[in-house]
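Input record, target 12 of the design panel.
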């Protein structure tokens, strides 16, 4: 079996997965007392057989940040018969497309053996990695079950050499020529990863936002099942488009029902409102800022486009209030011009000179009012 763990935070998602063969007891996976999962465990006293069928998902209890574990059926099980290879590749591709850490659980005695259970498993992992379109760099961790008198440094050297040989034996697709193992995987110290739980999160610069995970996972699995090429960058843009649009709509909805905006909108009906533009900009900017915070980990081009769309829609919302302000300014300015001109003419001053002076003065007042209503 193999496992996949997700660390779901408010904004970031880190995938963590473990590969096992069916013959390696599920109880030998990372300490269940540490991960606190509730999946069914293999009982060796009742014989060895398939414990997990398909893909199961559950929450790991009492672990922060919020952690979800995905349990995949054994990779070398005979339960599926001839269908095993197809499902193995589909599930491996799915897991590797959404995870960041790949943890492989294997017998120490399998190191250096050509036909050991972990070898075809590793080959499948590497083939899938090379198939991915512009894959993110993953962390590859190995857990060796049991030990012998052989010094660890010798086992480590043999394992690295064995991994390099398996990698070299995997055919290179046209899109991945002249690549080495280190182009796809990081090397880390496993012990420190479990001693310091926070270190599991690693580098978050390429972490996927948790809010878009389920949309992305559903699309990825459908693409795999339909046997289509898995274009991860395109899927990333698709998820960003869906989530950024959802977030933008929610922020726009909250803006349209904001108490301060509604009070400002009502006040405009009675006449010009002092600092209308500044007050409105402050209210709108607070929601734009919230949007920026929630979409900061999505594709930049997508989030910028949806932000501009949100701004445009918000301007449509305030358009009537803004037009009302201008109408008040126009009406008041025109009335002031008529009054001033009439008073000047009553004092015996010339029409042309008076009209020119008061027109310039009123235009200045109108322009200042428009500026205040806009900014």
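The sequence produced for target 12 reads:
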């Amino acid at each position: 079996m193999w496992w996949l763990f997700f660390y779901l935070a408010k904004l970031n998602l880190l995938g963590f997965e473990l590969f096992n063969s069916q013959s390696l007891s599920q109880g030998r996976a990372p300490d269940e007392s540490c991960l606190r999962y509730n999946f069914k465990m293999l009982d060796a006293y009742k014989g060895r057989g398939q414990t997990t069928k398909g893909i199961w998902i559950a929450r790991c209890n009492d672990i922060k940040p919020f952690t979800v574990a995905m349990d995949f059926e054994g990779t070398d099980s005979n339960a599926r018969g001839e269908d095993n290879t197809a499902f193995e590749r589909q599930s491996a591709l799915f897991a590797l497309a959404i995870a960041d850490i790949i943890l492989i659980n294997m017998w120490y005695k399998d190191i250096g053996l050509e036909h050991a259970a972990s070898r075809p498993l590793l080959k499948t992992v590497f083939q899938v990695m090379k198939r991915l379109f512009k894959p993110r760099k993953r962390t590859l961790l190995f857990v060796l079950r049991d030990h012998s008198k052989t010094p660890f440094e010798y086992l480590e050297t043999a394992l690295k050499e064995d991994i390099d040989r398996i990698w070299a034996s995997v055919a290179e697709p046209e899109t991945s020529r002249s690549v080495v193992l280190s182009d796809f995987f990081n090397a880390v110290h496993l012990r420190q990863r479990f001693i310091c739980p926070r270190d599991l999160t690693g580098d978050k610069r390429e972490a996927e936002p948790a809010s878009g995970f389920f949309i992305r996972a559903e699309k990825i699995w459908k693409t795999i099942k339909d046997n289509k090429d898995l274009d991860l960058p395109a899927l990333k843009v698709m998820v960003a488009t869906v989530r950024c649009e959802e977030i933008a709509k929610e922020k726009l909805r909250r803006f349209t029902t904001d108490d301060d905006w509604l009070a400002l909108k009502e006040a405009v009906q009675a006449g010009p409102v002092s600092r209308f533009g500044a007050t409105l900009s402050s209210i709108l900017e607070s929601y734009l800022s919230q949007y920026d915070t929630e979409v900061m980990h999505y594709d930049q081009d997508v989030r910028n486009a949806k932000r501009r769309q949100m701004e445009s829609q918000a301007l449509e919302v305030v358009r009537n209030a803004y037009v009302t302000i201008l109408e008040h300014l126009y009406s008041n300015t025109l009335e002031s011009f008529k009054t001033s001109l009439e008073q000047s003419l009553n004092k015996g001053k010339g029409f042309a000179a008076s009209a020119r002076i008061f027109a310039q003065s009123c235009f200045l007042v109108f322009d200042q009012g428009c500026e205040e209503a806009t900014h």
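Residues 1-14, 25-36, 189-199 have pLDDT under 50 and may be disordered.
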